[in-house]
Amino acid sequence: MKHSLFGAALTLLAGAVPALAEMTDIRFTLGWKTQGSDAPFLLALHKGYFEDEGLNVTIDQGEGSAATVTRIMGGAYDAGFGDINAIIQNAAARPGEAPVMVYQLWNRPPFAIVTPKTAGIETPADFEGKTLGGAQGTPTTRLFPVFAELNGVDLDKVGKENMAPNLQEPMMIRGDIDGAFVFTSTSWFNLIANRQDPAKDYNWFNFEDYGMDLYSNGMMVSRDLMAENPDAVAGLVRALNKATMEVAANQDSSVEAILAFDNLVDPELERARLEFALTNLMNAPEVETIGMGDLVDERLTRSIGIVAKGYGLDRLPEASEIFDRSFLPPAEMRAFDVTLN
After folding, report:
1. Burial class of residue 326 in the structure, from the number of CB atoms within 10 Å of its CB (0-12 exposed, 13-18 middle, 19+ buried)
2. Would you say 162 and 136 are in contact if contact means Cβ atoms under 8 Å apart?
3. What are the protein's UniProt keywords (predicted)?
4. How far is Cα of residue 34 from the mean position of the Cα atoms in its chain?
5. How many independent structural domains does the chain possess?
6. pLDDT tens digit string along 58-96?
7. I need a surface site. Which of 16, 221, 262, 313 has the fewest CB within 10 A?
């Protein structure tokens, strides 16, 4: 009897070994330090949705949404949360090497120019004679010449000052600059941290309102992962989609997942940042028709042209080089309905 039980146990253990060996390791990078807008990825990790897909996902903090692309291209990571415009930039110079977006989360861009109302800037023409500050190389800064051309602003009449991102809001508050090139999802909360009222006391020139119809952050994967293990990519997308639907419906569980990943964050601040992303960056009208995760090819093609102009690209990549929807679940599984609670 003992021998029989022992043999049965060995058989069960032997059967478990192949199952464990089938788990696929995925190295994943966020776009920045832990933020509320990372909730879909952190919820999928916390609730085991990646594991359910046979994926052993390790998530690291990032160094910027554009750096996600170079981190993946360098081979350190298989996938990440980053900016589609950085994919466009790198795909133009190194075709076949840049990662590919497989799930578009931010279907509205966070790029904006923010100005204190005391600066008297009410229209783009009012930028002339003023000084704007920003970090060199960010999309908002790099794309400002295109913004200026589309909106009749004479660049020669606009002062520009380079500075570290963490200095933008303090210098604007002190009056050292008249406005700043920012990411709304960051600057809004930096102003609150500096005891400012971003809604009442500041004007926001969101690029999307001034002819800059751009996409932004989503989940991208390496071309090697797509080629060598498409099933893993499909699993990543399914897990992320499941978590994204849950994040839209339940921010309480989202904050729990964020804290489980990084217990040093301010839960109230990151909840507010998550709600900001849900209601300002993930709610383009097209989502009602095509669902979360997808995008409109014609719009992407237009945005490629805008990025090419802003970055001086020699080649315009095709939309198919930048985004691949073949891994998306059916549209009915991606119906996106935000309920703040």
Report:
1. exposed
2. yes
3. Iron, Metal-binding, Pyridoxal phosphate, Signal, Thiamine biosynthesis, Transferase
4. 12
5. 2
6. 999 999 899 999 999 999 999 999 999 999 999 999 989
7. 16
